[in-house]
Amino acid sequence: MLILTYGRLWKFIFFSLFLGLCSLAELRAQERTLDFFLNQATKNSPLLRDLSGQQSALALDSILLRAQQRPQVKATSSGLYAPVIKGWGYDEALSNGQSLDALLGIDYVVMGKQRKNALFEALKIRGDSARYAVRITELDIRRSIAEQYIAAYASQQQALFSREVSALLGREDTILRTLTRANTYKQTDYLAFLVTFQQQKLAGRQAEISYKTDLATLYYLAGIADTITVPLSPPAFAETRPVSLPNSIFLQKFRLDSVRIEGERAAVDLAYKPQIGIFANAGYNSSFILQPYKNFGTSVGFSVSVPIYDGHQKRLQYSKLEIEDRTRAFYRDFFTVQQKQQIDLLNRQIAQTDQLFDEIGSQVRFAKGLVEADTRLLQTGDVTVADFIIAINGYMDAQNLYRQTVIDRLKLLNQLTYWNR
């Protein structure tokens, strides 16, 4: 017999509470949240890393472009020997018989301010497009991860509810077996109940398998090398304010395309303006025919290119850009209407879903109350097994409807969060 003093009793109670709190904290620490998977997915995404690498490469392209606009210095050398044997060989008037050159050359393309600005503007557009691709890709990843998280959470809730119903039926199985032996219920009534009980246990196993499969898929999509089965917290979505459609991130693509087309128009104009190049070299260039030791020298020159006629290619390029711009505007207008319709539809669906919760909640409470009442009557033999089974099935149907409505609302919120950007 264990006898505890008053002080020891309080120590025992405190230690028990401490162990309970530690176990609860450990369970909560094992829970995974939606934010955890979203952060892991964006961190592990190879596509996002690729796009980030492209942004870094564009920064180097800017430095490369500046280097290309500076004078280009290069050293060249070549030698030639064309022998004439017994009168056979190249014409020495053309080949000089032999030659040697070793030159240091400088080339510089005179580039006006407009041409420089156009090149850097094109580079800026590429950078803006890369940043836009990163944002859109991140939004797509977050939406797909949230969809899978909701699916896994729904499977988890189904598994938990199956356990709850199985535990309830397990308790009633013990009572019914005793009452059947006492001839309060027929053997056939107990067998009918047992069939329902076994079906529920099979449904519970299927729910567990479905949860583990959905969770493994979630790990896979997020790039997490793990197989541990952990509880998932209810997904939470931050409330989003209605987006101003002209400022929507999805319309930024059409604005970037418009700027790109304008840049291509400017590039067409610049291609038909005169281009000037300057070059100079210094070194040794000799045919060894006359005073080769004096053939050190230098030369300077320039080149001018002025387009005159190319078969109206400029006008044709303008026409192509006009067609592309009209197509872009059509897609933009069509997408704007679609996005507005999508957001309005999602808001209506969420409002209609919210209106169902009170009614479904009342149905769940009534069904649960009927099960509790039939459970008490079952112990005294005042309710048929068939009526109890009907009450159990009604309670499961009501719970499934409530749970499915919750999941549907979470899916709608995920879609609204995506489009409301």
UniProtKB/TrEMBL annotation:
Q: Which GO terms describe its molecular function?
A: efflux transmembrane transporter activity
UniProt superkingdom = Bacteria
Q: Which InterPro entries match?
A: MdtP/NodT-like
Q: What is this protein called?
A: TolC family protein
What species is this protein from?
Hufsiella ginkgonis
